[in-house]
Protein backbone atom coordinates (compact mmCIF):
# COMPACT_ATOMS: atom_id res chain seq x y z
CA UNK A 1 0.00 0.00 0.00
CA UNK A 2 1.43 3.37 -1.02
CA UNK A 3 1.87 5.82 1.83
CA UNK A 4 1.30 9.54 1.42
CA UNK A 5 4.41 11.69 1.44
CA UNK A 6 4.45 14.08 4.42
CA UNK A 7 7.35 16.28 5.48
CA UNK A 8 7.02 18.36 8.63
CA UNK A 9 9.44 21.25 9.01
CA UNK A 10 9.72 24.40 11.09
CA UNK A 11 8.32 26.49 8.24
CA UNK A 12 5.30 24.33 7.52
CA UNK A 13 4.03 21.00 6.33
CA UNK A 14 4.73 19.58 2.88
CA UNK A 15 2.50 16.95 1.34
CA UNK A 16 2.49 15.35 -2.08
CA UNK A 17 -0.73 17.19 -2.78
CA UNK A 18 0.62 20.61 -1.84
CA UNK A 19 4.00 20.29 -3.58
CA UNK A 20 4.58 18.36 -6.78
CA UNK A 21 7.51 18.77 -9.11
CA UNK A 22 8.84 16.98 -12.16
CA UNK A 23 11.44 17.73 -14.80
CA UNK A 24 8.89 18.77 -17.42
CA UNK A 25 7.29 21.52 -15.35
CA UNK A 26 9.06 24.34 -13.57
CA UNK A 27 8.11 27.27 -11.37
CA UNK A 28 6.43 25.25 -8.59
CA UNK A 29 4.28 26.93 -5.96
CA UNK A 30 3.79 25.38 -2.53
CA UNK A 31 0.07 25.39 -1.76
CA UNK A 32 0.00 25.69 2.01
CA UNK A 33 -3.81 25.79 1.92
CA UNK A 34 -4.28 22.49 0.09
CA UNK A 35 -5.44 20.66 3.22
CA UNK A 36 -8.29 23.14 3.85
CA UNK A 37 -11.38 22.20 1.77
CA UNK A 38 -13.05 25.57 2.30
CA UNK A 39 -10.19 27.38 0.55
CA UNK A 40 -10.68 25.37 -2.66
CA UNK A 41 -14.30 26.52 -2.98
CA UNK A 42 -13.30 30.17 -2.64
CA UNK A 43 -12.91 30.59 -6.40
CA UNK A 44 -13.29 28.69 -9.65
CA UNK A 45 -10.06 30.08 -11.09
CA UNK A 46 -7.36 27.49 -11.71
CA UNK A 47 -3.71 27.90 -12.59
CA UNK A 48 -2.56 25.64 -15.44
CA UNK A 49 1.02 25.19 -16.60
CA UNK A 50 2.18 24.06 -20.01
CA UNK A 51 5.65 23.54 -21.44
CA UNK A 52 8.47 24.93 -19.28
CA UNK A 53 7.60 28.34 -17.83
CA UNK A 54 4.31 29.11 -19.60
CA UNK A 55 1.41 29.44 -17.19
CA UNK A 56 -2.13 30.77 -17.52
CA UNK A 57 -5.28 31.16 -15.43
CA UNK A 58 -8.51 29.42 -16.48
CA UNK A 59 -12.03 29.24 -15.15
CA UNK A 60 -13.54 25.96 -13.99
CA UNK A 61 -16.96 26.55 -15.53
CA UNK A 62 -18.06 22.90 -15.28
CA UNK A 63 -17.33 22.63 -11.53
CA UNK A 64 -14.88 19.80 -12.07
CA UNK A 65 -13.21 18.32 -9.00
CA UNK A 66 -9.68 19.37 -9.79
CA UNK A 67 -6.55 18.73 -7.79
CA UNK A 68 -2.96 19.69 -8.19
CA UNK A 69 -1.17 17.55 -10.77
CA UNK A 70 -4.21 16.68 -12.88
CA UNK A 71 -4.03 16.91 -16.66
CA UNK A 72 -6.83 19.01 -18.13
CA UNK A 73 -8.00 20.02 -21.59
CA UNK A 74 -8.45 23.79 -21.77
CA UNK A 75 -9.77 26.25 -24.31
CA UNK A 76 -7.25 27.24 -26.98
CA UNK A 77 -7.16 29.77 -29.77
CA UNK A 78 -8.37 27.92 -31.73
CA UNK A 79 -8.95 24.32 -30.63
CA UNK A 80 -7.88 23.04 -27.24
CA UNK A 81 -4.67 22.64 -25.29
CA UNK A 82 -3.53 20.17 -22.64
CA UNK A 83 -1.82 21.31 -19.46
CA UNK A 84 -1.29 20.41 -15.83
CA UNK A 85 -3.12 21.93 -12.88
CA UNK A 86 -0.52 23.58 -10.65
CA UNK A 87 -2.71 25.56 -8.27
CA UNK A 88 -6.34 25.60 -7.10
CA UNK A 89 -8.28 27.50 -4.49
CA UNK A 90 -7.62 30.75 -2.70
CA UNK A 91 -3.91 30.80 -3.49
CA UNK A 92 -4.78 31.26 -7.18
CA UNK A 93 -6.31 34.64 -6.34
CA UNK A 94 -3.09 35.67 -4.63
CA UNK A 95 -1.09 34.60 -7.66
CA UNK A 96 -3.37 36.61 -9.95
CA UNK A 97 -2.98 39.62 -7.69
CA UNK A 98 0.79 39.17 -7.82
CA UNK A 99 0.58 39.13 -11.62
CA UNK A 100 -1.43 42.37 -11.47
CA UNK A 101 -4.55 40.86 -13.01
CA UNK A 102 -7.87 42.58 -12.41
CA UNK A 103 -9.94 39.63 -11.23
CA UNK A 104 -13.31 41.37 -11.68
CA UNK A 105 -12.71 42.24 -15.35
CA UNK A 106 -10.49 39.30 -16.30
CA UNK A 107 -11.94 37.24 -19.16
CA UNK A 108 -10.49 33.82 -18.48
CA UNK A 109 -10.78 30.92 -20.87
CA UNK A 110 -12.56 27.77 -19.80
CA UNK A 111 -11.45 24.32 -18.73
CA UNK A 112 -13.28 21.79 -20.88
CA UNK A 113 -12.64 18.51 -19.10
CA UNK A 114 -10.14 16.33 -17.36
CA UNK A 115 -7.79 15.12 -20.09
CA UNK A 116 -8.66 11.72 -21.51
CA UNK A 117 -6.25 9.11 -22.85
CA UNK A 118 -6.98 10.33 -26.38
CA UNK A 119 -6.14 13.92 -25.37
CA UNK A 120 -2.87 12.88 -23.76
CA UNK A 121 -1.83 10.69 -26.68
CA UNK A 122 -2.60 13.43 -29.20
CA UNK A 123 -0.67 15.99 -27.14
CA UNK A 124 2.30 13.64 -26.85
CA UNK A 125 2.36 13.14 -30.62
CA UNK A 126 2.27 16.91 -31.14
CA UNK A 127 5.06 17.58 -28.66
CA UNK A 128 7.23 14.95 -30.35
CA UNK A 129 7.38 17.19 -33.43
CA UNK A 130 8.73 20.24 -31.59
CA UNK A 131 12.46 19.56 -31.90
CA UNK A 132 12.34 18.70 -35.60
CA UNK A 133 10.14 21.72 -36.27
CA UNK A 134 12.57 24.00 -34.43
CA UNK A 135 15.54 22.78 -36.52
CA UNK A 136 13.64 23.34 -39.79
CA UNK A 137 12.38 26.74 -38.61
CA UNK A 138 15.93 27.88 -37.84
CA UNK A 139 17.10 26.82 -41.28
CA UNK A 140 14.25 28.68 -43.00
CA UNK A 141 14.95 31.86 -41.01
CA UNK A 142 18.63 31.61 -41.88
CA UNK A 143 17.91 31.12 -45.60
CA UNK A 144 15.74 34.24 -45.51
CA UNK A 145 18.65 36.13 -43.87
CA UNK A 146 16.60 37.30 -40.92
CA UNK A 147 18.47 38.59 -37.86
CA UNK A 148 16.68 36.34 -35.39
CA UNK A 149 17.04 33.02 -33.62
CA UNK A 150 14.28 30.48 -33.03
CA UNK A 151 14.84 29.54 -29.40
CA UNK A 152 12.00 27.06 -28.89
CA UNK A 153 8.82 25.70 -30.44
CA UNK A 154 5.74 24.70 -28.45
CA UNK A 155 2.86 22.80 -30.04
CA UNK A 156 -0.68 23.13 -28.79
CA UNK A 157 -2.23 20.01 -27.32
CA UNK A 158 -4.41 19.33 -30.37
CA UNK A 159 -1.50 19.84 -32.79
CA UNK A 160 -3.27 22.59 -34.73
CA UNK A 161 -1.13 25.50 -33.56
CA UNK A 162 2.48 26.16 -32.58
CA UNK A 163 4.18 29.01 -30.76
CA UNK A 164 7.60 29.95 -32.15
CA UNK A 165 9.73 31.67 -29.52
CA UNK A 166 12.42 33.81 -31.10
CA UNK A 167 15.22 36.09 -29.96
CA UNK A 168 16.19 39.24 -31.86
CA UNK A 169 18.19 42.34 -31.00
CA UNK A 170 16.08 44.62 -33.15
CA UNK A 171 12.77 44.69 -34.91
CA UNK A 172 12.18 41.86 -37.38
CA UNK A 173 9.69 41.83 -40.24
CA UNK A 174 8.59 38.18 -40.22
CA UNK A 175 5.36 38.51 -42.20
CA UNK A 176 6.80 36.54 -45.09
CA UNK A 177 8.36 34.10 -42.65
CA UNK A 178 4.95 33.26 -41.15
CA UNK A 179 3.61 32.44 -44.62
CA UNK A 180 6.52 30.10 -45.28
CA UNK A 181 6.10 28.43 -41.88
CA UNK A 182 2.36 27.93 -42.47
CA UNK A 183 2.97 26.35 -45.88
CA UNK A 184 5.77 24.15 -44.55
CA UNK A 185 4.26 22.89 -41.29
CA UNK A 186 0.53 23.16 -42.16
CA UNK A 187 -0.40 24.61 -38.77
CA UNK A 188 -1.43 27.92 -37.27
CA UNK A 189 1.63 30.03 -36.44
CA UNK A 190 2.16 32.37 -33.49
CA UNK A 191 5.43 34.29 -33.07
CA UNK A 192 6.49 35.36 -29.60
CA UNK A 193 9.63 37.33 -28.87
CA UNK A 194 11.59 36.51 -25.71
CA UNK A 195 14.83 37.77 -24.21
CA UNK A 196 18.03 35.96 -23.36
CA UNK A 197 16.91 35.43 -19.77
CA UNK A 198 13.59 33.95 -20.86
CA UNK A 199 15.43 31.60 -23.20
CA UNK A 200 17.67 30.40 -20.38
CA UNK A 201 14.57 29.85 -18.25
CA UNK A 202 12.92 27.75 -20.92
CA UNK A 203 16.01 25.64 -21.55
CA UNK A 204 16.98 25.28 -17.89
CA UNK A 205 20.31 24.28 -16.41
CA UNK A 206 22.49 24.37 -13.32
CA UNK A 207 24.17 27.52 -12.07
CA UNK A 208 27.66 27.87 -10.54
CA UNK A 209 26.03 27.64 -7.11
CA UNK A 210 25.11 24.02 -7.85
CA UNK A 211 21.36 24.65 -7.92
CA UNK A 212 18.91 24.89 -10.80
CA UNK A 213 18.66 28.26 -12.48
CA UNK A 214 16.37 30.70 -10.68
CA UNK A 215 14.76 31.73 -13.96
CA UNK A 216 13.69 28.14 -14.62
CA UNK A 217 12.48 27.26 -11.12
CA UNK A 218 10.74 30.17 -9.39
CA UNK A 219 11.35 33.56 -11.05
CA UNK A 220 8.45 34.99 -13.02
CA UNK A 221 9.68 38.56 -13.45
CA UNK A 222 13.13 39.71 -14.47
CA UNK A 223 14.49 42.88 -12.89
CA UNK A 224 17.28 44.82 -14.54
CA UNK A 225 20.72 44.06 -13.12
CA UNK A 226 23.43 46.73 -13.34
CA UNK A 227 27.14 46.73 -12.70
CA UNK A 228 26.50 48.95 -9.70
CA UNK A 229 25.23 45.89 -7.84
CA UNK A 230 28.63 44.23 -8.26
CA UNK A 231 30.53 47.34 -7.20
CA UNK A 232 28.33 47.75 -4.13
CA UNK A 233 29.17 44.20 -3.03
CA UNK A 234 32.90 44.59 -3.77
CA UNK A 235 32.80 41.82 -6.37
CA UNK A 236 35.54 41.37 -8.93
CA UNK A 237 34.56 43.05 -12.23
CA UNK A 238 35.14 39.83 -14.14
CA UNK A 239 32.49 39.37 -16.86
CA UNK A 240 32.97 35.61 -16.91
CA UNK A 241 32.10 35.36 -13.22
CA UNK A 242 29.34 37.96 -13.16
CA UNK A 243 27.50 36.68 -16.25
CA UNK A 244 25.06 33.80 -16.18
CA UNK A 245 24.23 31.24 -18.83
CA UNK A 246 22.18 33.85 -20.66
CA UNK A 247 25.34 36.00 -21.10
CA UNK A 248 23.67 38.69 -18.96
CA UNK A 249 24.52 39.74 -15.43
CA UNK A 250 23.33 37.16 -12.92
CA UNK A 251 19.94 37.85 -11.39
CA UNK A 252 21.26 36.82 -7.96
CA UNK A 253 23.39 39.98 -7.86
CA UNK A 254 20.21 41.82 -6.84
CA UNK A 255 19.31 39.51 -3.97
CA UNK A 256 21.57 41.03 -1.30
CA UNK A 257 21.53 44.65 -2.44
CA UNK A 258 19.20 45.86 0.39
CA UNK A 259 21.48 44.24 2.97
CA UNK A 260 24.56 45.86 1.48
CA UNK A 261 22.87 49.24 1.17
CA UNK A 262 21.96 49.13 4.85
CA UNK A 263 25.51 48.11 5.77
CA UNK A 264 27.17 50.72 3.53
CA UNK A 265 25.04 53.46 5.09
CA UNK A 266 26.79 52.76 8.41
CA UNK A 267 30.27 53.26 6.93
CA UNK A 268 32.09 56.62 6.95
CA UNK A 269 32.29 58.78 3.84
CA UNK A 270 35.11 57.58 1.57
CA UNK A 271 36.03 61.17 0.75
CA UNK A 272 36.76 62.14 4.35
CA UNK A 273 40.35 61.41 5.50
CA UNK A 274 41.38 60.72 9.07
CA UNK A 275 43.88 63.05 10.71
CA UNK A 276 46.24 61.80 13.41
CA UNK A 277 49.22 63.43 15.10
CA UNK A 278 51.63 61.56 12.83
CA UNK A 279 49.93 61.33 9.41
CA UNK A 280 46.76 61.47 7.31
CA UNK A 281 44.86 58.29 6.40
CA UNK A 282 42.63 57.70 3.37
CA UNK A 283 40.05 54.99 2.72
CA UNK A 284 41.63 52.11 0.82
CA UNK A 285 38.99 49.34 1.12
CA UNK A 286 35.80 48.57 2.99
CA UNK A 287 34.03 45.46 4.26
CA UNK A 288 30.38 46.51 4.70
CA UNK A 289 29.05 43.28 6.21
CA UNK A 290 31.72 43.18 8.94
CA UNK A 291 31.74 46.96 9.37
CA UNK A 292 35.49 47.28 8.79
CA UNK A 293 37.40 50.01 6.94
CA UNK A 294 40.98 49.76 5.68
CA UNK A 295 42.95 53.02 5.66
CA UNK A 296 46.20 53.88 3.88
CA UNK A 297 48.58 56.81 4.27
CA UNK A 298 48.68 57.16 0.47
CA UNK A 299 45.67 57.99 -1.69
CA UNK A 300 46.73 55.86 -4.66
CA UNK A 301 48.48 52.82 -3.23
CA UNK A 302 48.59 50.63 -0.15
CA UNK A 303 51.00 52.16 2.37
CA UNK A 304 50.89 51.54 6.13
CA UNK A 305 47.49 49.87 5.98
CA UNK A 306 45.37 49.81 9.12
CA UNK A 307 41.99 48.18 9.63
CA UNK A 308 39.55 49.76 12.06
CA UNK A 309 35.84 49.46 12.70
CA UNK A 310 33.35 51.89 11.20
CA UNK A 311 32.43 53.11 14.69
CA UNK A 312 36.08 53.98 15.41
CA UNK A 313 36.36 55.79 12.06
CA UNK A 314 33.26 57.89 12.77
CA UNK A 315 34.62 58.68 16.22
CA UNK A 316 37.91 59.98 14.75
CA UNK A 317 36.03 62.02 12.12
CA UNK A 318 34.03 63.68 14.91
CA UNK A 319 37.28 64.38 16.79
CA UNK A 320 38.79 65.99 13.68
CA UNK A 321 35.74 68.23 13.34
CA UNK A 322 36.38 69.49 16.86
CA UNK A 323 40.01 70.15 15.97
CA UNK A 324 41.35 67.16 17.88
CA UNK A 325 43.71 64.50 16.57
CA UNK A 326 44.31 61.07 18.15
CA UNK A 327 47.78 59.59 18.53
CA UNK A 328 46.95 56.78 16.08
CA UNK A 329 43.97 55.02 14.56
CA UNK A 330 44.12 52.23 17.09
CA UNK A 331 43.53 49.60 14.45
CA UNK A 332 45.29 46.46 13.29
CA UNK A 333 48.27 46.83 10.99
CA UNK A 334 48.10 44.66 7.89
CA UNK A 335 49.85 44.17 4.58
CA UNK A 336 48.68 44.38 1.01
CA UNK A 337 48.13 40.61 0.99
CA UNK A 338 45.21 41.04 3.39
CA UNK A 339 44.16 40.57 6.97
CA UNK A 340 43.05 37.62 9.04
CA UNK A 341 40.21 39.56 10.65
CA UNK A 342 36.91 37.70 10.45
CA UNK A 343 38.28 34.75 8.49
CA UNK A 344 39.12 31.24 9.54
CA UNK A 345 40.22 28.38 7.34
CA UNK A 346 38.06 25.92 9.20
CA UNK A 347 37.89 23.20 6.55
CA UNK A 348 41.31 23.65 4.99
CA UNK A 349 40.01 24.76 1.63
CA UNK A 350 42.99 27.07 1.14
CA UNK A 351 45.62 24.42 1.81
CA UNK A 352 47.21 23.12 -1.39
CA UNK A 353 48.01 19.85 0.36
CA UNK A 354 44.30 18.98 0.32
CA UNK A 355 44.89 17.41 -3.09
CA UNK A 356 47.51 15.06 -1.68
CA UNK A 357 46.48 11.57 -0.72
CA UNK A 358 48.22 8.60 0.72
CA UNK A 359 49.15 6.14 -1.98
CA UNK A 360 47.92 2.58 -1.81
CA UNK A 361 49.80 -0.58 -2.61
CA UNK A 362 48.37 -0.79 -6.10
CA UNK A 363 49.23 2.80 -6.96
CA UNK A 364 52.10 3.13 -9.37
CA UNK A 365 54.80 5.53 -8.14
CA UNK A 366 56.45 8.05 -10.41
CA UNK A 367 59.94 6.70 -9.66
CA UNK A 368 61.11 3.17 -9.16
CA UNK A 369 63.48 2.49 -6.34
CA UNK A 370 66.17 -0.22 -6.57
CA UNK A 371 68.07 -0.46 -3.33
CA UNK A 372 69.68 2.87 -2.58
CA UNK A 373 69.40 4.11 -6.20
CA UNK A 374 66.46 5.79 -7.94
CA UNK A 375 65.95 5.57 -11.69
CA UNK A 376 63.54 7.83 -13.53
CA UNK A 377 61.20 6.34 -16.09
CA UNK A 378 62.90 5.94 -19.47
CA UNK A 379 62.00 8.41 -22.15
CA UNK A 380 63.35 6.69 -25.23
CA UNK A 381 61.01 4.37 -27.17
CA UNK A 382 63.40 1.38 -26.99
CA UNK A 383 63.70 1.84 -23.21
CA UNK A 384 59.91 1.76 -22.85
CA UNK A 385 59.79 -1.43 -24.93
CA UNK A 386 62.49 -3.00 -22.76
CA UNK A 387 60.54 -2.05 -19.66
CA UNK A 388 57.39 -3.71 -20.97
CA UNK A 389 59.30 -6.94 -21.70
Give an account of the 3D structure.
The chain is of the alpha+beta class. Among the domains are: 6-115, no CATH class; 274-333, no CATH class. It is built from twelve helices and 17 strands. The chain has helices spanning 37-40, 90-98, 117-127, 130-143, 175-185, 196-203, 214-217, 227-232, 239-242, 257-264, 310-321, 381-388, and strands at 6-9, 12-15, 45-49, 55-59, 71-75, 80-88, 109-114, 149-155, 161-167, 188-193, 274-275, 280-287, 292-296, 306-309, 332-333, 368-370, 373-375. The strands form five sheets. It has a five-stranded mixed barrel with strand order 3-4-7-5-6. It has a five-stranded antiparallel beta sheet with strand order 11-12-13-14-15, with helices on one face. The chain has a three-stranded mixed beta sheet with strand order 8-9-10, sandwiched between helices. Strand 3 (45-49) and strand 4 (55-59) form a beta hairpin. Helix 4 crosses helix 5. The longest helix has 14 residues, at 130-143. The radius of gyration is 31 Å and the shape is elongated. The chain starts with 5 loop residues before the first strand and ends with a helix. Mean pLDDT is 79; it is low at 7-15, 17-25, 335-343, 346-350 and 367-389.
In short:
The chain is an alpha+beta fold.
Sequence-ordered SSE layout with sheet pairings:
Layout: E1 6-9, E2 12-15, H1 37-40, E3 45-49, E4 55-59, E5 71-75, E6 80-88, H2 90-98, E7 109-114, H3 117-127, H4 130-143, E8 149-155, E9 161-167, H5 175-185, E10 188-193, H6 196-203, H7 214-217, H8 227-232, H9 239-242, H10 257-264, E11 274-275, E12 280-287, E13 292-296, E14 306-309, H11 310-321, E15 332-333, E16 368-370, E17 373-375, H12 381-388
Parallel strand pairs: 4-7, 9-10
Antiparallel strand pairs: 1-2, 3-4, 3-6, 5-6, 5-7, 8-9, 11-12, 12-13, 13-14, 14-15, 16-17
Helix pairs in contact: 4-5
Amino acid sequence: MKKDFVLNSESGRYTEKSYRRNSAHMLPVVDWLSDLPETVSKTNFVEVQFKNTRKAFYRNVNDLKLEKGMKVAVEGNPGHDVGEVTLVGQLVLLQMKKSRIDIEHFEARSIYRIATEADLQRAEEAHALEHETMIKARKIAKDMQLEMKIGDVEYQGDGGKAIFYYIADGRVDFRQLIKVYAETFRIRIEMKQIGARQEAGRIGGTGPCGRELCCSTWMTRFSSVGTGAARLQNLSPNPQKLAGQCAKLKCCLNYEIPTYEEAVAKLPDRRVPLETLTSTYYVFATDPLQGLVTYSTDQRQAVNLEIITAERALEIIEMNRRGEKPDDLGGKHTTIEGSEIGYANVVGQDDVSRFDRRRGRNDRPNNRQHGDRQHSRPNAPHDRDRQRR
